[in-house]
């Protein structure tokens, strides 16, 4: 049986609920049984990869659906389950397969893997995006990403590269590597993790849903302003589902966060079951984020048959049919308000629902199968 060492050091050390860590959790969960997956982490003390227990892996997967658990508690539980002193290290040999499904900035870990590549280890990486380097203004608290160039050098030297979208691959080849790359695949991401179930339209559905962390680049405040400024369809409701970042609430978001309007609500601690329940009243979803590496929530919406309002440059949708979508060019208040007017019209909305059923979605099982066969 083929064996792949899965380096999930970042997930083990910082088990938060980012989009990237959601990718890693779903990959672990859906990994096919006919390819042996050995989850490992980089041990900087022993300068080696070490195997982590199955109990630890199971907790890391489950913690992704427990938004109310404080990060400190999650880290403490991981440290309790995963005792480095009891974990065997891995002696990598030429031809061994190592896969890194996460973005990270640890220079020692990068150096370790670059040495492994030089010694003949078959290392592959799954790349979510290059936003830190291409759009550093999205991270105002970090003065420069220049100190983290070592991750890019690892990507350059990896034997194989997988990109979550064609747009991310194009960013790599056109703006970073600046030449065509070999040994690459585009995986897309699975859209079935939330288990929403196929939805059907009826005119009683009145909820617009925006799923995503409250941060400037996702621009929920623009959607809020567009919604409260509408002059038609007063029976619509708007629900934001997303965590508040550790560094606090952006000033532009304060009217949204403090809103007492009966037609607007904010849920900061919703697990997948909560989201699935909320989708039972969804008329459409909104995801007009200004900068994204992929944009999974719209794909999950379309998988459930629910139309979406999106920006036309969303990486997840580049090169794909526009079934069930209202694609916006500017994504400003006027643009969004016009789309809300369309969604509010029963006949036009019903047509979008019918169209959404035709969108070609992927499952996490298919994505994990592709990664396992390729790595």
From TrEMBL:
The UniProt record lists the Glycosyl transferase family domain at 197-313
Q: Which GO terms describe its molecular function?
A: glycosyltransferase activity
Keywords in alphabetical order, please: Glycosyltransferase, Transferase
Top-rank taxon, per record: Bacteria
Q: Can you tell me where the transmembrane regions are?
A: none
Do the record's keywords include Protein biosynthesis?
A: no
What's one Pfam family the UniProt record gives for this protein?
Glycos_transf_1
Instruction: Please report the name of this protein according to its UniProt entry.
Output: Putative glycosyltransferase
Q: What is the protein's species of origin? A: Azorhizobium caulinodans (strain ATCC 43989 / DSM 5975 / JCM 20966 / LMG 6465 / NBRC 14845 / NCIMB 13405 / ORS 571)
């Amino acid at each position: 049986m083929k064996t792949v060492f899965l380096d999930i050091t970042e997930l083990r050390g910082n088990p938060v609920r980012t989009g990237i860590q959601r990718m890693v959790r779903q990959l672990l969960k859906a990994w096919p049984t006919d390819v042996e997956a050995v989850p490992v982490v980089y041990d900087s003390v022993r300068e080696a990869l070490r195997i982590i227990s199955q109990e630890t892996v199971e907790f890391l997967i489950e913690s992704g659906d427990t938004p109310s658990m404080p990060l400190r508690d999650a880290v403490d539980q991981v440290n309790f389950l995963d005792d480095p002193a009891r974990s065997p290290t891995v002696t990598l040999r030429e031809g061994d397969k190592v896969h890194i499904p996460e973005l990270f900035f640890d220079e020692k870990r990068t150096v370790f893997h670059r040495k492994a590549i030089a010694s003949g280890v078959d290392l592959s990486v799954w790349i979510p995006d290059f936003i830190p380097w291409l759009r550093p203004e999205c991270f105002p608290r970090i003065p420069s990403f220049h100190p983290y160039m070592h991750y890019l050098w690892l990507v350059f030297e990896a034997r194989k590269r997988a990109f979550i979208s064609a747009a991310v691959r194009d960013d790599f080849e056109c703006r970073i590597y600046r030449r065509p790359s070999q040994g690459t695949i585009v995986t897309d991401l699975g859209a079935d993790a939330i288990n929403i179930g196929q939805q059907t339209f009826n005119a009683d559905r009145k909820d617009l849903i925006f799923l995503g962390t409250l941060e400037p680049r996702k621009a929920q405040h623009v959607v809020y302003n567009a919604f409260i400024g509408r002059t038609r369809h007063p029976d619509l409701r708007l629900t934001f589902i997303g965590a508040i970042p550790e560094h606090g609430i952006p000033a532009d978001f304060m009217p949204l966060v403090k809103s007492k309007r009966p037609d607007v609500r904010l849920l900061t601690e919703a697990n997948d079951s909560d989201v699935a329940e909320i989708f039972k009243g969804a008329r459409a979803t909104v995801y007009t984020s200004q900068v994204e590496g992929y944009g999974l929530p719209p794909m999950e919406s379309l998988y459930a048959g629910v139309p979406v309002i999106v920006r036309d440059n969303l990486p997840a949708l580049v090169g794909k049919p526009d079934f069930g979508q209202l694609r916006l060019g500017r994504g400003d208040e006027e643009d969004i308000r016009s789309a809300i007017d369309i969604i509010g019209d029963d006949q036009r909305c019903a047509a979008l629902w019918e169209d959404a059923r035709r969108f070609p979605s992927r499952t996490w099982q298919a994505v994990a199968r592709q990664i396992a066969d390729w790595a």
